[in-house]
Amino acid sequence: MKILVVDDENAILETLEAKFRREGFTVFCASTAEDGMRLFRKVKPDLVILDIMLPQRSGYDFCVTARKESSIPIIFLSAKADEANRIQGLELGADDYVTKPFHLNELAARVRAVLRRSTGEPVQEVVEKGNLKIDPLSHVATLDGNPMDLSPREFALLYFLVRNAGKVFSRDTLLDRVWGHDAYIAARTVDVHVRWLRTRIEKNPDSPERLVTVRGVGYKFVG
Length: 223
Known about the structure:
By secondary structure, the chain is of the alpha/beta class. The protein has helices at residues 10-22, 33-43, 59-69, 83-91, 104-119, 152-163, 171-179, 188-201, and strands at 2-6, 26-30, 47-51, 74-78, 96-99, 127-129, 132-135, 140-143, 146-147, 211-214, 218-221.
C-alpha cells in the first residue's frame, strides 16, 4: 500500500519514510502542500499523513481539496495540540489527528487501524429507511436516489446507526463498534461525525429528526 507524507520538516520526512518502508509500505514524501497535491493526484496513495503548518498553503487547505477528489484516509500530524484544532481537522474530513512530538509505533498503529477500517470487508446487507438507502458492498449511500459524498468513517457510522435503527448507542460504544478497539480517538470525535452526517441527511441539521441525541446517553437513528 502507498502512503503519502506531507511535512516541511526533513527530519520527520526521513524518519517516517524509513519507518513505513520497514513496515512494508511504498512511501512518497513532499514538503509543501502544492508538491503533496501533485503526488496525491499522480500516485493515488492509500493514506495521507499531513502536517498542518506548511509553507504557503496549510494542511487544512490540502485536506479540503483532497476531500473533494477522494475519500482515502487522512491523518493530521501537528504541533497544534489544542482541542479546537483537533476538531477543525476532523470536521474538514480527517480520520485521525496525532500531535507532535509523537511515538513512531503509536503512529504506525494508528495508520494500520485506519487502513483496516477503510479497507475491511463490508457487511453484505443493504439497508433502507425511507428515502435513505445504504449498500455496503458497493459502498454507496443514497438520499432520494442521489449518492452522498461520505468519508469512510461517515459511511461506517451511518450504516451502523441505520442498521440498528431505534437503538441508542453511547459515544464509547460507537467508538468501539465503528472506530475499533485500537482507535486512539476521543469520544468528541463521534459528535463531529454526527454533526457532519446531519448536514447530509437532515432537512434542518440544527433540529434533527432522524439522527437524534438522547440526552445523557448517546445517539440513535429514527427510521
